[in-house]
Amino acid sequence: MNILVVRNDKLGDFITALPSMYVLKQYNPENKIIVLVAPLNKTLAQKCDFIDEVIVDTGQNFFTLARTLSSYKIAASITLFSNTRVALAQFMAQIKIRIAPATKIAQIFYTQRVPQRRSQVKMAEFEYNLELTKSLFPSIDLKYKQPLLEFTDAQDIYKIFCINNDIEKEVVCFHVGFGGSSDANWNLDEYEMLIRNVLAMKKYQVVMTFGPDEVDLYEAMQNRFYDTNIVFYLSLDGLVYFAKLVSSFKLFVSTSTGTYHLASLVGTSTMTFFGNSLFASAARWKGVGEDAKQEHFMIPKEADAKMELFDEVKKKLLLF
Questions:
Q1: How far is it, in rounded angstroms, from Cα 240 to Cα 238?
Q2: 194 lies in the same domain as 107
Q3: Tally of domains in the chain
Q4: Is residue 81 domain-shared with residue 220, that is, in the same domain?
Q5: Confidence at 263, pLDDT banded by 50, 70, 90
Q6: Which of 35, 125, 183, 231 has its CA 20 to 30 A from that of 74?
Q7: Considering the entire predicted model, what is its pTM?
Q8: Domain with 302 in it: what CATH number?
């Protein structure tokens, strides 16, 4: 059966869809898993051995998208994130079984509309995505391997990175930028305190990573830490290279953003900061990796409570 899975939004959102794709493939290896993704996530999707075909959503009109979908002879689709253009394109492509959450006006174009009420956060985003696969295969096993994505050449990549940057200790990585659904983070002064505490331990090498659009932040942090041996990495080598690099780090410290989900996907231990609301919480946005490898902190808005949490984070880093 040719099965289309749609998750054509940001990096973190796409990663929350990967367990669903995995279990659909495991249910029957003869299933051909076809995914519709945003351009950013194309190369990562192509590295997943449980994904057979990748269609990139470039924002093409629904007529063009419908023609593309038709060419794949898709028997069923599961749309984890929907909009009217994508829903209408699937309808026009005459996909017989079209499953999606029962939200938005777009739901009228689906044959099976599943009430989930994700805003109630009764489970994590990736768990809601997994639940949708039951609408197609009620007896499907929702267990998936962890880490979900591994690379045979990751250690080689990491060794070269270490040689080029004179790294001789295990790496604690800080990613101070953020985007997506994250609505809470430490400010740069607070991050500087956390990082200098780790440096004072003399136990780990600190690496700071930055997205390709974070050049100003990359330069600002270099100015703050001119007196240290921190390695500053501006990610210009592509998402897959970055995933391979992160998979070899000891710890990845960041707010709840796409890079956090990437670190959890490849099996790295994470220390992550979330907004103090149900929408932005760890309960909704925890990573797809092992729970034991994830340390979650909800940053409160009240100054005293925030300072208390900050002290707790410092202690946790010192004990890591």
A1: 6
A2: no
A3: 2
A4: no
A5: very high
A6: 125
A7: 0.95
A8: 3.40.50.2000
